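To whoever is on call:

I kicked off a structure prediction for a single chain this morning and the downstream step that reads the tokens threw a length-mismatch warning. I double-checked the sequence; it's 408 residues and nothing unusual in it as far as I can see. Pasting both halves so you can look.
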Amino acid sequence: MTSERNSPARKVYLDHSATTPVRAEVLSVMLPFFAQAFGNASSVHRWGREARVGVETAREKVAYLLGAEPSEIVFTSGGTEADNLALRSTARLLRSKGNHIITTTVEHHAVLHTCQILEKEGYEVTYLPVDEYGMVSVESVIEAIRPETILISVMHGQNEVGTIQPVEEIGRVAKEKGILLHTDAVQSAGKVPLKVRDLGVDLMSISSHKMYGPKGIGALYVRKGIKMAPQITGGAHERGRRAGTENVAGIVGFGEACYLAERELAEESRRLTALRDRLISGILERIPDTVLNGHPSKRLPHNVNVSIKYVEGESILLNLDRMGIGASSGSACTSGSLEPSHVLLAMGVPHEVAHGSIRMTLGRMNTVEDIDYVLEVLPPIVSRLREMSPFSAPAASETSGGGRNNVQ
């Protein structure tokens, strides 16, 4: 166990895209549903009715965040299940109309792996490329559409590099062509405005634990009129769209997290953007041969992803951790992999540069002082690692300032 004398002077959590702490207000509304209002929400007695009120009140709060109707919200176990339900259900119900799906090369694995499974079942999937910022073009979507296209799935905010995709423009194309549009908005929910009518989406996945709610609960928005084929069977829960006894306490907490996020969204988004830009500019100015991954302006307000040349990202993370700073080298689901990020590779980042990428994602608890602490600690860590690295270019330590703000 680390002794107090060796403990870092400051602790700074910068991995909010992996998960967030449960807010005190959220925990407070959840607690009664563990031991007092503990009933099964499908039961007709007073305990069940009490639980049902909690579920339906939460459904209204989730709908409030998305600008949807409560009946359009289906609770799931998280964003991954929501993605799976959206793709599998839509593909199977529309099989008689076509078998073609369009997605991108930078989707979360919950979408990519599901598409790969659907390919084995006879569906055809087009994986659209992205530019150096990780952004897909609307033109490429239009060009990929076929008569047999039944679904387009493009994420809203990229989970690793933070690029915000042109979902609204794609939504207009999809509507004109009569094709369903799904978006994985797990990283965007609670960070940027996310009204389903404005975006023109038919299906949207979100997750509680990315926005200060409990783990193990998420939701899929399903536009009114779209039928769903349940992928978990065994009961008529969630209006027949997802079987299983509801996670009442989780649902209640999720609803409160959505309500708080919508109420505070504008102010918190501005605050996070200012901190994000302070961190990005500080890193690029103080650490030579560093590049920003993702779009410089069309990005999530809390996301910072940089590639630091001539060092391994994992080594940087271990040294940051010793100094009390928590960050990641990519998406939380693949952080244990030795393979470089599929997102960075799809953006054209060379393998050796992609291995030096780190992701720092900000949250409610972060302050200007936290950012300044990172900017104090990170440059000497990089300098020390470069001195030990066999891949360090002689000019690297002599270059002064100014990493580019995009990946070449």
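Update from on-call: the warning came from a stale cache, not from the record. Cleared it. Sanity check on the structure: Residues 1-5, 331-335, 395-408 have pLDDT under 50 and may be disordered.
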